[in-house]
Design brief:
single chain; about 425 residues; alpha/beta; Rossmann fold; Alpha-Beta Plaits; 3 domains; 13 strands; about 45% helix; globular
Length: about 425
């Protein structure tokens, strides 16, 4: 039986233009920058929409400010409330301070301290930050209870028409600045507000553009929902790409995206980390995990985008520097350059030396080693982390271990043990 449904109403161009008028003295018209290295790598014309250079270092201020500034004086007199793990909170805080409106912002305990400090800095005296719950969903529930009890308007991070229209100004700016027709638009997808807004503008003004949504592989809420034909709540997600890791997308945004998105690319979290490190090392661009999603997807479209004009929305740069070691680790694991083993070593002098001489290749490096001598045993287990220079070196390493009859177990493939040990 064929599915029947009513086509979703896209965000109106008139609403996006009105949003731009409200925002023009508040937000930066961020640059659309041609990237030489990416263009050469993919043999295409790659442009980056640099929302990482926005006033609160992400596009979220557009939707938050458009929504709050559109409310009546009677509504805002009671103050506003929101829930966020970071960027939306900063946009709401900035808007509250700028418009002299009281705000209550609920954030989970797992929010990086850097983002909490940014919210307080942008909100100053106007906002109260309330840390509660272990997840965004916990904070969201607390915020909704507060909104109901205190009769305060709730500012949704993505599932709101005025928020979507505000995010639509990203698409409007791209097409204002583009010096050639855009063949592909890659946009990150969390709750769906950005791609719904920007995508609505593109669908009405640049219909030839293929719009690709990009989600983290560990939180494929939009991908799953589109595949099933109904908005679906995920039971478990990987929260690493915190700006785009949601269990459920918006109901409005889901319906819009059914008509906007050509397809959704799922990017492994390790690939995101590789992109972050590459952008920092080669371009001096600092991005957060969600901000790297659109560029990370290019590898999966290498043949399709060859010779085409491509725009990637770099959504934000609120990255916590303390996460860089974890990002490096995830990148090495994804690239096949880092491997952890449980190895049974003979409990005798010189066993480790023999391992180094006979097993390690000339460019292999032991980066982690944990061993405790066991009494009255012939062998003792050791946790060994080995970094190789290139993926092919790993196969050679395994061949040497097999030839020397080294008993081992690859920890990388055992998720629970890996997360406990590493």
């Amino acid at each position: 039986m064929q599915e029947t449904r009513t086509a979703a109403k896209l965000a109106a161009i008139e609403d996006i233009i009105k949003a731009q008028m409200k925002l023009k003295t508040v937000v930066h018209h961020t640059p659309l920058m041609h990237n030489f290295n990416l263009s050469e790598q993919y043999q295409a014309h790659i442009y980056l929409k640099r929302e990482d250079l926005q006033v609160v270092r992400s596009y979220k201020i557009r939707g938050a400010y458009n929504k709050i500034s559109s409310m009546t004086a009677e509504e805002t007199s009671r103050g506003v409330v929101c829930a966020s793990a970071g960027n939306h909170a900063q946009g709401v805080a900035f808007a509250c301070n700028r418009l002299n409106i009281k705000g209550k912002i609920f954030m989970p305990h797992t929010t990086p301290s850097q983002k909490i400090k940014q919210v307080k800095m942008f909100g100053k005296h106007a906002v109260e930050v309330i840390i509660t719950g272990d997840t965004f969903d916990d904070s969201y529930k607390s915020a909704m209870v507060c909104a109901g009890a205190e009769n305060m308007p709730f500012i949704h991070p993505f599932d709101d028409d005025m928020v979507i229209a505000g995010q639509g100004t990203v698409g409007m700016e791209i097409l204002e600045d583009a010096d050639r027709p855009v063949d592909f638009l890659f946009a990150p997808v969390g709750g769906g507000g950005l791609i719904s807004g920007a995508g609505s503008y593109f669908k009405q003004v640049s219909q030839q553009t293929r719009i690709i949504g990009v989600e983290p592989a560990g939180a494929p809420a939009m991908h799953t929902s589109l595949a099933r034909g109904e908005n679906t709540t995920l039971q478990q997600i990987d929260k690493f790409v915190d700006g785009a890791a949601v269990k459920r997308v918006g109901d409005r945004t889901f319906e819009m995206c059914r008509d906007i998105i050509e397809e959704v690319a799922l990017v492994p979290e390790g690939k995101v980390c590789s992109t972050i490190l590459k952008l920092y090392n080669e371009e001096a661009i600092v991005v957060e995990p969600a901000g790297a999603l659109s560029i990370s997807a290019l590898d999966f479209y290498r043949e399709q985008i060859k010779g085409k004009t491509v725009v990637c929305i770099v959504s934000g740069s609120n990255n916590d520097i303390t996460r860089m070691e974890e990002m490096k680790e995830r990148s090495l694991l994804y690239e096949g350059l880092k491997h952890y083993f449980m190895i049974n070593f003979p409990q005798r002098a010189g066993a480790l030396k023999d391992f180094v001489v006979n097993i390690l290749g000339p460019e292999d490096d032991i980066t982690h080693f944990e061993y405790t001598k066991k009494t009255s045993r012939e062998n003792g287990p050791a946790l060994v982390g080995i970094e190789v220079k290139k993926p092919g070196d790993y196969d050679m390493l395994l061949q040497r271990m097999k030839k020397q009859q080294i008993p081992y177990e690859l920890v990388n493939e055992r998720a629970l043990l890996f997360n406990f040990l590493i």
